[in-house]
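chain below, 296 aa
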Amino acid sequence: MSSARVFKYLPPRLADQIRGLGISSRRPMQGGIQGLHRSPDFGASVEFAEYRDYVEGDAPNLIDWSVFAKTDRYMIRRFQDETNLRACVLVDASASLNFRQAGPVTKFEYACSLAAGLMYLLVCQGDATALSFFTDRVTRRFEPVASVETLSPVLLEMENMEAKGAGNIEQSLHEAAEMLKQRSLVVVISDLLQPPAQLARGIQHLQHNRHDVTVFHVLDAAEISLPLRGLVELRDLETAEKLLIEADEIRPRYAQAVQGYLSEISRVCTACGAHYFTVETRTPMLDALARRANLF
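prediction:
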């Protein structure tokens, strides 16, 4: 970053490491400037899209004379215009994200670092990106930024955000879908502690509005392996409910249930047309970002 300020969620070393990555969308986007991504509009780009019949008023120099020689028809080539990508990063800020046991940071801190890295990549390639935090609704919105300079205040504000309250991913995604007026790349970062069917309804709303959705499922490794031993009291971070368990006794069934849950979440996201990635809080941030950047 050009500023001497060191950002908690985007330290200089990480910024230097990820600068060469790039993010694209598989769906045509609509933007205000010419850029790197395919647009639903047709223009004078180098990417050929299709032919159409010549009609009165079209410039004669647009006629493809090689096609006329073969078909005796006046045809015009149409090209896909290229445009900048619009993105929105949605970060789960419910209390369950405060969990930390096997990783170096909480799930919320990891989610914020992932969001900061994604936004930095997007603005570095000339794209505009917004940021929102949600619990059982969208609680904080940051307007789109399109440069490193305008991203800096957002990174500073992120350091003041806290994870608290109960979550409702479905309701939050419905709200986000209604807020987004232009076709966008939407990145959801959450621990997805909600029944898969409810998550699916939220993603389907975004997909119905023709957004390209990516889901990052943030987990602490302890949630997968249950490293606890003996009699343990667990407390729900969102509801404060307590549960007494014999960890050694339930571990095999717990592992089976977790793998079934992860498989179902993956299946649901894929069926809805979303890209799905699981990341642990021990996963190096460069690796997590590269998985999305190398998608296409």
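The longest strand covers residues 75-83. The first helix runs from residue 12 to 18.
thats it, cya
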